[in-house]
Amino acid sequence: MTFGETFLSDPPSLFESRSEQPCGAVEEVLVVAGGSYRCRGLSEGQGRALRQRYETGDAGSPPPVDFQFQHASPEEFLPLGPLVRDYTFDLEPRPGEVLLAGWDFAARIELHPVFAASMWTPHLEGEMFESAFANVFRVIVAYGVLAGGGALLHSAAVAEDGSAQLFVGVSGSGKSTISQLALDSGRSVLSDDLNALWRHDGRTYVEQVPFTGDLRGSLTTTGRFPLAGIHRLRQGRTPMLRSLTVAEMVALLFGCAPFINSDPFRREQLLANLEACARDIPAGELTFALDGDFWHLLSPGKAS
Amino acid sequence: MTAPGALRPRSDVRFRRVAGEGVVLLQDANEVLALNEVGARILEHIGDGLTMAGIVDRLLEEFDADRAELEADTAEFVRELLESGVIEAVPRDEERPDGD
Q1: What average pLDDT does this structure show over A272-301?
Q2: Comparison of pLDDT for A274 and A85, the residue scoring more
Q3: Which CATH class is domain B9-86?
Q4: Where are the domains of chain B?
Q5: Is the pLDDT confidence value at A107 over 50?
Q6: Amino acid A58: pLDDT
């Protein structure tokens, strides 16, 4: 199956150079995980949706990533049928760019010589636009965080006393469970789904990103925190913490980095970023029990 | 110890030193493996074109270990590297005349 053929009526033509046809004249700057993204050519409805869902702000430093919105004809997209709810969009990494195609959207992320993005959709407002935008924006942010020396990771992040612990593991390992246990014990959760790791002034930070998770709506903390520990999750009866080496942790984190870990042109940069982020951070495998009696293992000397 | 022919890392394999250990990226399989310090050295020696005997000799210089134990462990580890697609046997017509 070739790229885009499930979603686009003529994949090559949509990405070929053509005259710009913005969805509107609205502009918003979205601020996410140490980067800013100038969304241009938005319709009124699209701009309203982004303001409601994402943090907006002024373009800071470094300059924002240019993100253009183009209005495409509905005929350029193929219908997926009334029963389709969950699907996987197409992602095609290339040496200097990444192409995306999904249900009523297509996008190009240019990585060289400058980082910029374009998105095509026939929807000027509504759920289909919001869903398409979220799919595209997650990928853009993943590449933006990578360019900034970090990584977007499937993970749960729990904040306490001004720092955060990151929990990683395969689907079903307990990220949402440990997040709920953290909330039950009065701790704050950044996300139980996706978090960004990045370096600043010689330290590794974990930052919330505005994407969905099971606990979205229950989360009480925003912002970034110095990273205090990274833990592979394992459920069991007896709580314990076993140390992992940096190499073991880098290998584990690689598997948790969506989009980038399947990009053959950027995997080595991902490994370098993960090594930089994890090198000075205590790492271990946490066996935790549902009664929640394990937090003291993460903060020695402190009661649960 | 059975002496296999010459070995080499597969062309899609990338190796990084990480805090004294090693991380191996298998591009085609899209997998990453972590190697401990000795495992990382063995892979580096394979990349340098050493034979099994040469690798063991070099490891004996680098680590405090018993030769018989090291030979057995190295052979086992090399077998695992072959099975996991990290290294491959060099075809006879590509072998260098002097591997050590």
Answers
A1: 86
A2: A274
A3: alpha beta
A4: 9-86
A5: yes
A6: 78
List beta partners, residue A30: A37, A56
Residue from B12, B13, B15, B23 to probe the interface with A (highest A Cβ count within 10 Å): B23
Shortest CA gap B32–chain A (Å): 5
The β-bridge partners of B34 are: B23
Confidence of residue A70 (pLDDT cuts 50, 70, 90): very high
- Interface membership of A250 toward B (CB under 8 Å): yes
Which residue is closest to B12 within chain A, CA to CA? A264
Q: Does A272 touch chain B (CB under 8 A)?
A: yes
CB A199 within 8 A of CB A133: no
Residue pLDDT, tens place only, B50-93? 999 999 999 999 999 999 999 999 999 999 999 999 999 988 77
Nearest CA of chain A to the CA of B19: how many Å?
Answer: 6
Cα dihedral across residues A73, A64, A53, A195: positive or negative: positive
- Angle ∠(A47,A114,A225) on CA atoms, nearest 5: 65
Q: How far A279 CA lies from chain B's nearest CA (Å)?
A: 7
Domains and CATH numbers, chain A: 11-147 (no CATH), 151-298 (3.90.228.20)
Q: Enter the tokens of residue A11.
A: 């994949």
Token couple for A155 = 């993970």
Spell out which residues of chain A touch residue B25, defining contact as CB-CB under 8 Å. 254, 267-268, 271
Q: Does A203 touch chain B (CB under 8 A)?
A: no
* Assessment of whether the complete model's pTM goes beyond 0.80: yes
